[in-house]
Write a structure and sequence with these properties.
Number of strands: 8
Largest sheet: 8 strands, parallel
Radius of gyration: 17 Å
CATH class: Alpha Beta
Order of helices and strands: EHEHEHEHHEHHHEHHEHEH
CATH architecture: Alpha-Beta Barrel
CATH superfamily: Aldolase class I
Distance between the termini: 10 Å
CATH topology: TIM Barrel
Helix content: 40-55%
Mean pLDDT: 96
Strand order of the largest sheet: 7-6-5-4-3-2-1-8
Shape: globular
Structural class: alpha/beta
Number of helices: 12
Number of domains: 1
Length: 252
């Protein structure tokens, strides 16, 4: 039976009070697949979100972490700090982190390792720009990211990672990724993972689509065999929209 994960990424949105209110509204939806749903909040709102979701089965997490356990890293957050809050998930390598904050495959690899060791599920983002796609280099580029990000990580640990494919070229550019394009790349990523490890690891990995999934297109995307869910941006800020996407997954 196909597994799903519907992961909300609030980015730099929602105060603690807003997170608490959102959690109460989402709990009231009584999602049938609550255990396959999670929300990633800004650091300051994680605690309120977690408390608000207690007893619902819905997971919660962070949008970034530092790979060092402590030290002179002003503005950063360690794995131990996330563990204390009961975080179950953490996004790493998001395209915005890579573009605006100098995230590299080397730092992503380090973060993967510390999250796995801490028992926190990493949601690893990969994806190509418009320039790369227009030059026909999308597969080479994304394969390079996946190979570098999983460097020196054994199969047993790799199996604990969730991958989210972000078609950067289709976000805010006016261009749209079709369900077929999303499926093709998610299937390709699964093949890359199988090539690094084995078919069991590739087949078992959850691969999400992170390109503007919303209620109107969720079912069509989630029906594709290699898409195991979504990393939801804008639609995760509205309870009704986010719940509708989760319900679309539950119907399949």
């Amino acid at each position: 039976m196909k597994k799903f994960l519907i992961a909300g990424n609030w980015k730099m949105n929602k105060t603690s009070a807003e997170a608490a209110a959102f959690a109460e509204e989402l709990k009231a939806k009584n999602l049938p697949n609550a255990k396959d749903v999670c929300v990633m909040a800004p650091f300051t709102s994680i605690e309120a979100l977690g408390k608000g979701l207690e007893g619902s089965g819905i997971g919660f997490g962070a949008q970034n972490v530092h790979f060092e356990p402590s030290g002179a890293y002003t503005g950063e957050i360690s794995v131990a700090m996330l563990q204390e809050l009961g975080v179950g998930y953490c996004v790493i390598g998001h395209s915005e982190r890579r573009e605006y904050f100098a995230e590299t495959d080397e730092t992503v690899n380090k973060k993967l390792k510390v999250l796995i060791a801490a028992g926190i599920t990493p949601i690893l983002c990969v994806g190509e720009s418009l320039e790369v796609r227009e030059q026909g280099g999308e597969q080479t580029f994304v394969a390079g990211q996946v190979i570098a990000d999983f460097a020196d990580i054994p199969a047993a640990d790799a199996a604990k990672v969730v991958i989210a494919y972000e078609p950067i070229w289709a976000i805010g550019t006016g261009k749209t990724a079709t369900p077929e394009q999303a499926e093709d790349m998610c299937a390709f990523i699964r093949g890359v993972v199988s090539g690094i490890y084995d078919n069991a690891t590739g087949d078992g990995m959850l691969i999400l689509y992170g390109g503007s999934m919303k209620p109107s297109n969720a079912k069509e995307l989630l029906e594709k065999p290699d898409i195991n869910g979504g990393l939801i941006g804008g639609a995760s800020l509205k309870v009704d929209d986010f719940a509708a996407i989760a319900e679309a997954a539950a119907s399949l």
